[in-house]
Amino acid sequence: MQQLLFTVIFSEMTLIMVLSFKTPLRKLVIMTLDRIKRGRGPVVVKTVAGTFSVFLISSIYSMLKIQRQQIDEGGVLNPTDQVLMAKHLLEATLMGASLFLALMIDRLHHYIRELRLRRKTMEAVKNQSRGFEDGTAGSSEEIKTEEEMTALKAKLKHLESEIESKSKEVNAAEANAVALRKQSEGFLLEYDRLLEENQNLRNQLQSLDWRLSHSGSKKNT
C-alpha cells in the first residue's frame, strides 16, 4: 500500500513539474487531461478519490483508536502499537498528500486552459486595435475608433493583470508540491527509524525470555 502511494505521489509531482514548464510534453499531458475530463473520466476520478478518502478516514480512525487505548492503559504504548501508529500516520499523510496533489493538477490544468483562452482573446484584441490604427475613416468614425481603442486597451490591461495573478497561483502551487515532497521524505525516515527501534526491542525481549528460560532450567536441575 505504501509503495503504491509513493508511486502515485511521485507520478503526481512529475505531472505538476511537466505542467509548470512550457514544453512539448506539457501539450501532450494537457491533451490527455482534456480527454480524461470527458465522458466517464470524471466519474472514474471521483470514484478513485472517494476510495482514497475512505482509506484516509480509516487510517485516522485507527490512530484515534490506538490513542484511546493508550489513555486506557495509562499513557504507555507497547512497541507493536507504536509501529502501527507510525504506519497509520504515514499512510494517512501519503493519502492526504496524493489527494492534495491531484487537486493541484486539476487546478493547474484549469488555469493553463484559461490562460490560453485569455491570450487568444488578447491577440484578437491587439489585432483589432492594429486594424483600427491602420484604417482611415471620417472624423466621426475616427472618434468612435478612438473610444473603442481606449476601451480595448483598458480591457487588455485588465487581462494582463489577471494573467499575472494566475501565474503567481501556479508558482505557489508548485512550491506547495515541493514542500509536500520534503514532508513525505521526512515521514519515511521516521518510519524506518521506528521499525529499527521496534526490531531492537524485540531482540531485547527475546534475549530476556531466553535468560529467564535458561535460569529456570538451571533451578529445576
Explain what the structure shows.
Helices cover 91% and strands 0% of the residues. With 221 residues, it is mainly alpha-helical.
Concise summary:
The chain is mainly alpha-helical and 221 residues long. The two termini are 51 Å apart.
Secondary structure layout plus pairing:
Layout: H1 2-20, H2 24-36, H3 41-72, H4 79-134, H5 139-220
- The number of helical elements comes to 5
Share of residues in strands: under 5%
Helical amount: over 70%
Specify the overall morphology: rod-shaped
State the end-to-end distance. 51 Å
Output the structural class: mainly alpha
Low-confidence stretches: none
Which value, in Å, is the CA radius of gyration? 30 Å
H-E string: HHHHH
Largest sheet: none
Overall pLDDT, averaged? 80
Tally the beta strands: 0
